[in-house]
């Protein structure tokens, strides 16, 4: 089967893409709005874009009506944010923050996680996360103002928080981190099933 993407409905294309590109790591993004109200939301279009300089990427899709999400608006306004890695023990709390809340709702409180101030930037992060990146906006590539159009956010990592018990410098123990990823549909996966290829 060969699929011409211009002939596919939006929701069908979404399912084809997320069902193929997996597992996808989850960026649990902490921001502050103009009034200083914390916002916390997960995004699974997330990866490393560069090491030197250290740059990460997240893509934030528009809402169904084409409106930009609160996280993106906050990043545009403040130019800083945090990305906390989601470990298995936090996955249910992360899922709570994936719902669409009103602007004045603090998702940190709704999920019952600690909202701590970042050290190098004026933002906040999840205190229970074993790894957190403090990020300063580099640029945004806007793909439009229609439903599910992406906004590719590139950001410089200015600091990394790592719990001492998961790192043997400079290696992070992936099993102790126990990160989860997004799979297709409503499913998630872990990285506990590891294997080695000898070349």
TrEMBL record:
SMART domains: Flavin_Reduct. It holds the Pfam family Flavin_Reduct. Its cofactor is FMN. Gene3D superfamilies: Electron Transport, Fmn-binding Protein, Chain A. It comes from the Bacteria. Residues 19-164 form the Flavin reductase like domain. Keywords: Flavoprotein, FMN. One of its GO terms (molecular function) is FMN binding. InterPro entries: Flavin_Rdtase-like_dom, Split_barrel_FMN-bd. SUPFAM superfamilies: FMN-binding split barrel. Belongs to the flavoredoxin family. PANTHER family: FLAVIN REDUCTASE LIKE DOMAIN-CONTAINING PROTEIN, FLAVOPROTEIN OXYGENASE. This is Flavin reductase family protein. It comes from Arcobacter arenosus. The lineage of its organism: Bacteria, Pseudomonadati, Campylobacterota, Epsilonproteobacteria, Campylobacterales.
């Amino acid at each position: 089967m060969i699929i011409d993407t211009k002939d596919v409905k939006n929701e069908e294309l979404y399912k084809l893409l997320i069902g193929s590109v997996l597992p996808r790591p989850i960026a649990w993004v902490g921001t502050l709005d103009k009034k200083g109200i914390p916002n916390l939301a997960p995004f699974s279009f997330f990866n490393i874009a560069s090491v030197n300089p250290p740059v990460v990427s997240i893509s934030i899709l528009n809402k169904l009506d084409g409106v930009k999400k609160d996280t993106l608006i906050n990043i545009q306004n403040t130019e800083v944010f945090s990305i906390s890695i989601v470990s298995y023990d936090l996955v249910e709390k992360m899922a709570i923050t994936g719902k669409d809340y009103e602007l004045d709702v603090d998702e940190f409180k709704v999920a019952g996680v600690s909202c701590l101030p970042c050290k190098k930037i004026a933002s906040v992060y999840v205190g229970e996360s074993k790894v957190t990146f403090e990020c300063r906006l580099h640029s945004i590539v806007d793909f439009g103002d229609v439903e599910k159009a992406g906004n590719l956010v590139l950001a410089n990592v200015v600091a990394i928080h790592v719990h001492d018990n998961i790192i043997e410098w400079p290696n992070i123990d992936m099993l102790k981190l126990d990160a989860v990823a997004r799979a297709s549909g409503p499913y998630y996966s872990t990285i506990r099933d590891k294997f080695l290829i000898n070349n």
